[in-house]
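Quarterly update from the structural biology core.
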Amino acid sequence: MKIFAYSGGSHCAGMTLLENGKPVFAFEEERFNRIKAYKDYYNHHFRIPVQSTAWAKKEFNLDFNDIDYVTTYYPELGPTGVYEAKEIFQQSDLGDFPQEKFIFTDHHDSHCYLAYYTSGFEEDTLVISLDASGGDYSGKFYLGKNGNLDYIDGLKLDVKSFGHYYALLTEFLGFKRLKDEGKIVGMASHGNFNQRYYDIFNKIIKVIGTQTDKESIYNDSTKHKYGHVLSKIYKDFYNEFFEQIGSAFYKHELNDIAYNGQLVFEEKIIELIQNLKKKTPTATKIAASGGVFANVKLNKRINELDWVEEVYITPPMGDEGCNWGCGLYIHKLKNPDFKPYKLNDVFLGVEFSDTEVGDVFWDKDKFKREIYYPEIIAKELKEGNIVGWFQGRYEHGPRALCNRTILADPSVPGTYKKINDKLQRNDFMPFAPVVLDTEADNVFHVTKSRYTAEFMTMLYDTKDEWKDKIKAVVHPVDGTARIQIVTPKSNNKFYDLLTQFHNLTQIPVLLNTSFNVHGEPIVCMPNEAFNHLENGIVDTLVINNFIYRKI
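Predicted structure, tokenized:
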């Protein structure tokens, strides 16, 4: 069975093709048009995955005659309204809209189905979706049991949204909401507890059983007009948020504001989860998706709950993963015996052969090349060089998982500042370590949730004896690290490089950050990687089986 899922809407345009419940490809429009998240929250312009379509046709011979079902998750389309769907197909050159094959999928159901059916969990699992809003909800909760999902509860748009809370915190701190939330997570670790600040945030959003408190100005008549709902809720929550805290905080204490805002955010969601546990006492594991779970500090707190045996955070936890979830929803609907499985990797983007790179993208007047050997790059990393690593198909989701990655030795003094300067990053945004699976327990406290650690979606504590050895990838205040465990099965070529580096330095860890300048999407095309080499962002570039250097 083949299922084609796509999205337009105000952000995260893209598409996914599933065959027998497994992804064939997953494309984000941002990777091709180079517009981060391809979003327009404020004007609600409908985004069309034009270039994704072109690459789907080119790379995978996309043919709707061979596709059994078509789905999307955007509420603008409605269960029966297909006007926008037809527009997407027409403008993307997908052909006539196959209305007879179309099934609409709920936004938060898509998050939950992706979380559960890629968790591999057989035990009773609490499945959670939380984000700013999607459809008529900002969150949904299920019990995953025996390969099925049973609905528990959901947060409709007449109650406060955790995603909106954090977006407003982001804006109050001087950043752009629904864009810069990750910066606030980094800032929070530099702050301190302040009782007055904590008390104020504690009043902003309340947990009542498995709900939050009501919106005070919610207008039910707008609930089916997505853009109007979003602006209405922002108007309500915005006013309440800023009226309560606007005159109470000192703007020079930004780190403390971030700390206490983050702390309340964590505590409220933990309270919600504990209340959900009371309704599902048999649940021993958690599978989660939605933009809220991009918050790695929150994920760590969840992982530390005594009754939780394991937490799985979906690698594409934001709306870029909803297409995949839509496909899984339809697959389960048509195949009731379908069970959760574990991912080997999320390398679902486009790739380029050595011949194609050499004939199309390599400028022989600017760059020289030699055959790649891991020993060469391991030595360069040890010497302090910054290496651009471009291999195979790109990663689906927001994390660079060692196919479109910038690498460095985390033990070399000055590395942290050097890369921050080159990538135009804020210094409170820590880099992530990638570590050999055989050495992860020696360097970090990975007591549980090893599977999610393969996808860089959670913080773990660094062991004391390693904090000074790998300073560039350890948070200087709390000693945590957003680790990625790499295995031979998940990425054999990179595993060989990391093994060579370990043998050379006795350090089983490399600094891993996404292959992009801050504010841009992760590189997709070889020419983008070559631009980073030409501009001095990286010292050396490895594309597939060749090493490239500036002449």
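The two ends are 50 Å apart (CA to CA).
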